[in-house]
Amino acid sequence: MSEELGRVRQMWHLLEPLHAVLYYAPEAFEEAAALGYEVGERWPSYFAWRAAPLGEAGADRVAETFYSFSPRMVGAYVPAGWAVASPGAVLAARTRAVDRAYRTVLGEAVAAPGAAEAAALLRRVAEAADMTGRPLAAANAALPWPDAPHLALWQAATVLREHRGDGHLAALARAELDPVEALVSFAAVGAARPEVFASRGWGDEEWSNARERLLKRGLLADDGTATDAGRALRAEVERGTDEAAAAPWRVLGDAERERLVELLGPLWVAAIGSGLLPSETTLGIGKV
Q1: What local confidence, expressed as pLDDT, does residue 254 receive?
Q2: DSSP secondary-structure letter at 110?
Q3: Tell me, what DSSP letter sits at residue 130?
Q4: pLDDT band at 196 (very low <50, low <70, confident <90, very high)
Q5: Strand partners, 220
Q6: DSSP character for 144?
Q7: Which residues constitute the domain of residue 112?
Q8: Number of domain units in the chain
Q9: Fewest CB atoms within 10 A around its CB: which of 15, 72, 101, 136?
């Protein structure tokens, strides 16, 4: 991996927990419940929070942009979620949820000068991103920027996170990996246990059929682990993802990037140390 792509991967690792706090924080579930969403599990609010920038998107649109989720699972929450609350109401509650969660998780850091400095740097990167072919990133980038630095920081992190994710889907398409195959092949290289990927709603038969297709392509061994070809293809996907995410970061100079890492470090520690985030996810952070 080149030095530039290594920095791009580092920034993703730093920003992902800061974005993901929304999906696990008690304050976010309280805001979702106030809107009328069921909060006994996280999926009703997850689909609402993440899909709201797309407007009243239907199940097909959300399944296409989220990619790894079973359309059957998406259909259980979308578009029914918009009958509970409109996308506009969800976005307003999302902002409140992030504000409350960050004040709990980050404490005094939300009002510290470093948060404003980090937010300004991240906003420059987010505004430099090309949104062509990146629907989730574009939808979030089109939202008004919050005045509060910690909220602007979250929005910038979210734009860049979805920008990377949209680029990842393009890399999977080039590798000719459909949604289930993408998960099976990722599990095969040790990104996470297959049980973790079960959260995406695919059935045993669908998982098994995807394994058979990858076996025929020579990407999986009989025991379900990746062959050399399978590992090479996944490495190509990750490299392509990093390359697609790299351009906006070039707006910062070396000293600015180093300063941003310095500013984000304590926030990352606080997010990880909150205990809210799962230790193993479908993203494979730190394992690929």
Answers
A1: 95
A2: G
A3: -
A4: confident
A5: 226
A6: P
A7: 3-273
A8: 1
A9: 72
